Amino acid sequence: MSPILIPPRFGWYLCTFHIGRMYFLCVNILILLVATLYFYLSAGRYTHNVASYPLPDKSLLTEPYPCINMNGDLAICHKGQCNGKWKPPRTKHCSICGLCRLEFDHHCPWVGNCVTLSKLKAFITFLFLVPSTFLVAVLPVAQILVKHIILALHVSKRDPWAAKTWWDWPGSWILCAGPFGRWIVGAILGFRLLSQNREQSQSPQLGYLIEQPHLRVVITAGFALLLSVFAFGLGIVSTRKVFQGVTTLEILRPSRSQSVDRHDLVCIPQTATNEVFVAPLLPKERMYDLGNDCNWKLFQLRPFFLTPSPRSYTWPKLNPIMVQRIREMQNNHRN
Ligand SMILES: [Zn+2]
Ligand SMILES: [Zn+2]
């Protein structure tokens, strides 16, 4: 064997054996991680982060806290099985799960469970892992799939039946999601024409699903692409909310400029006189925003997987700028 032949052979060996195996392993690990996170997010629908702390005596509270009315009262839930249980700050009664959830963010219909701040790290990881897995899985065949779509469009446009039924029909511009849908239906027709020709001339071989134009492969990849784009977008939005120190629920509440929401009142207890001073949030103020850096640091410090709830309730830290503003209001009110 001539030494000059060794590098190409070695290269072939690396590509087809080692890298091929590594790629296969990588894709499978990613799919396994996505599946594990999905099951973790779906688990514990009736057990995780359920609000079950006794109602505190408000006269013993000394630090500023969120309240529901001008008397500084704490929220209580009478819905479902909660039956008068205390509803700590940032808790929401999920009507789908039928219980009060601590640190509620939103109920995710895709995982059939509530997403809470304790599960948010896993949720955001899941949202970014889905498009990453899709990219790694589809990248080696992406070029072939695009070629097949172009070929299908080409065949469809040149076929007299497809041209008469679809391309030349004015309704094709509006029937399926406008001009974009016109191309999708056109490509589907092209794949049908290609499959009719293929069945007459070819027999299935190993890898034929990818090497030959197949509509089901393109539809599967297209569906996975849509899901990945959706997950990626949601991941970006969720990460932004982490930086802002808000939950989805807090963002979706009606604008405070229109009406004062009962969740947006802050009470400052006065231990000496046993009185309370209650003030509403300003329209763009965020109750739990501790500043971008601090919000992100607190998020990072949270464990990835759920840990048992502590026996005693830990009150969430309130926006220090907001507390300062309300204290100044209180001082002005006294004077
Ligand atoms: Zn409840
Ligand atoms: Zn729920």
UniProtKB/TrEMBL annotation:
<feature type="domain" description="Palmitoyltransferase DHHC">
    <location>
        <begin position="85"/>
        <end position="146"/>
    </location>
</feature>
<keyword id="KW-0808">Transferase</keyword>
<feature type="transmembrane region" description="Helical">
    <location>
        <begin position="20"/>
        <end position="41"/>
    </location>
</feature>
<keyword id="KW-1133">Transmembrane helix</keyword>
<dbReference type="Pfam" id="PF01529">
    <property type="entry name" value="DHHC"/>
</dbReference>
<keyword id="KW-0449">Lipoprotein</keyword>
<comment type="similarity">
    <text>Belongs to the DHHC palmitoyltransferase family. PFA5 subfamily.</text>
</comment>
<keyword id="KW-0564">Palmitate</keyword>
<protein>
    <recommendedName>
        <fullName>Palmitoyltransferase</fullName>
        <ecNumber>2.3.1.225</ecNumber>
    </recommendedName>
</protein>
<feature type="transmembrane region" description="Helical">
    <location>
        <begin position="126"/>
        <end position="151"/>
    </location>
</feature>
<dbReference type="GO" id="GO:0016020">
    <property type="term" value="C:membrane"/>
</dbReference>
<keyword id="KW-0472">Membrane</keyword>
<dbReference type="GO" id="GO:0005783">
    <property type="term" value="C:endoplasmic reticulum"/>
</dbReference>
<feature type="transmembrane region" description="Helical">
    <location>
        <begin position="171"/>
        <end position="194"/>
    </location>
</feature>
<dbReference type="InterPro" id="IPR001594">
    <property type="entry name" value="Palmitoyltrfase_DHHC"/>
</dbReference>
<dbReference type="GO" id="GO:0005794">
    <property type="term" value="C:Golgi apparatus"/>
</dbReference>
<dbReference type="GO" id="GO:0006612">
    <property type="term" value="P:protein targeting to membrane"/>
</dbReference>
<dbReference type="GO" id="GO:0019706">
    <property type="term" value="F:protein-cysteine S-palmitoyltransferase activity"/>
</dbReference>
<dbReference type="InterPro" id="IPR039859">
    <property type="entry name" value="PFA4/ZDH16/20/ERF2-like"/>
</dbReference>
<feature type="transmembrane region" description="Helical">
    <location>
        <begin position="215"/>
        <end position="237"/>
    </location>
</feature>
<keyword id="KW-0012">Acyltransferase</keyword>
<keyword id="KW-0812">Transmembrane</keyword>
